[in-house]
Amino acid sequence: MTTTSQPTYDELAVMPAYTEQPVPIAFEDVNGHLNVRHYTGIASEGLDEALVELGIPQNWPAAGHACFSAEHHLTYLAELRAGDRLTTRVRLLGRSERAAHVLVYLLDDTHQRLSFVMEEIFLHIDMSSRRTAPWPDDVAAKLDRRIAEDAELPWAAHASGCLALR
Predict the structure, then answer these.
(1) What's the rounded Cα separation, in Å, for the pair 155 and 152?
(2) CATH number of 3-151
(3) Could you tell me the residue ranges of all domains in the chain?
């Protein structure tokens, strides 16, 4: 992925915002910017928040279901520093019977730029067997609606090409 292939800050800023927060000083590393593990953690939290409206609550394991990450592709575009305001935006690309493909964007709202892109394949898990299982019908329908809505966004989704649904 190159920076020219990514959506602009303005294109992303109209999407629903998740994980709105400043970068905590404790998340900085010795280089004076957000440590790599926190980019991924914050993006993952944003994805979790976005999934709630699709019928996947944070306490889903208590109901016998879960989402497990299977693959990631991470792209760092601009550093985030302590105090910078950030938000997460989520674009669903597709799903299969047991998996989904998503792009998660971290926006640096202080400097109005895209900072980080996490592309992920995540799986639906039946917690009684801890194995993949088909999406429940209600969740599958909501995923399909959101995928269709996101496909209508006026800018192209640029995936890495190294992740794919099977």
Answers:
(1) 8
(2) 3.10.129.10
(3) 3-151
